[in-house]
Amino acid sequence: MVQQAKVSAVKVQEVEKIKALVKDFKVVGLAKLEKVPAKALHNLRDTLRGDVVIRMSKKKLIQKAFKESKKKNLIDLADKIFGITAMLFTNMNPIKLAQFLESKAVKGAAKPGDIAPGDIIVKAGDTKIAPGPIISELSQNLKLQTLIKNGTIHIRNDKVTHTAGQSIDAKQAQLLGRLGLEPMTIKLDFYSAWEDGEIIPTEVLHLDVNTILDNVRLAASEALNIALGLGMITSDTIKPLMAKAIRSSIALAMNLPIFIPEMVDQYMAKATREASALNGAVFESDEQPKSEEEPEPEKKEEEPAGLGSLFG
């Protein structure tokens, strides 16, 4: 008879702790920790305290705990765990949690194997580093032109050492650190979550809410315009359609050869517009400035008009 291996008390306790957290919180998330220094993780724990519980454990223990919790589809979340991952237990909306974690991102030094998130630029000026073998290292590894001035190494010109997407090797990471550059963004990479039986993927967690709202507003505006064009009567179109009908009725009535007492204001406004247009047309030539180059024609002395002028 094969004797069953005894499970350690520590592992049993760990499974029970995870099950208790699953019971206490509505949302379970997964976040990668590969690029997060211990100090940054400690600070983040303090920041999230009361809202989010961060816990790390072995994948097999997580799978066992999720399965025993009997929560719908929760075991599917365990299958998505890869690399160094932490569990996030919270009652926050997952998308809001993702936005919060993004807002807590900080700059950090590059590590060997990191990929440049953008162009890394070393600015010209004093490095505050004393001369030594590092001069040749800066030249060979980062292609920097240097000079010694006032007892320290200076960079001659601004230099892009890495473009976005380029890998940073161990020596380059060390030198960038010596120069005080922190090109990397350090944050919890929140990549999947479970809520009420649904698995929420990365692309949903990191949706741009403002862009979505703008698209919804645009779609609503276009739908309203189409409905108005088709004359569809709804709670949103009734007022604009009534206003349009009133304007059309007034325009039609203004062209009828009858007088409608209730439209005195409209008649007066139309008469004022037409009088203004006529006035502009009649006196337009008189208001034009005279050319300085053309001499003003000599005025002939007018003969006094007698009574005969009255008879042609």
Describe what this molecule looks like in 3D:
- It is a single chain.
- With 312 residues, this protein is an alpha+beta fold.
- The chain folds into three domains: 9-105 and 187-207, 2-Layer Sandwich (Alpha-Beta Plaits); 120-184, Molybdopterin biosynthesis moea protein, domain 2 (Alpha-Beta Complex); 212-276, no CATH class.
- It has twelve helices and twelve strands.
- The chain has helices at 9-24, 38-48, 59-69, 74-78, 94-103, 134-142, 170-178, 202-205, 209-230, 238-254, 264-282, 284-287, and strands spanning 27-32, 52-55, 85-90, 106-108, 120-122, 125-126, 146-149, 152-155, 159-162, 184-186, 189-195, 198-200.
- The protein has a five-stranded antiparallel β-sheet with strand order 2-3-1-11-12. Strands 6-8-7 form a three-stranded antiparallel β-sheet, with helices on one face. A two-stranded antiparallel ribbon has the order 4-10.
- The N and C termini lie far apart (143 Å).
Question: Keyphrases for this structure?
Answer:
312 residues; alpha+beta; Alpha-Beta Plaits; Molybdopterin biosynthesis moea protein, domain 2; 3 domains; five-stranded antiparallel sheet; three-stranded antiparallel sheet; 12 helices; disordered C terminus
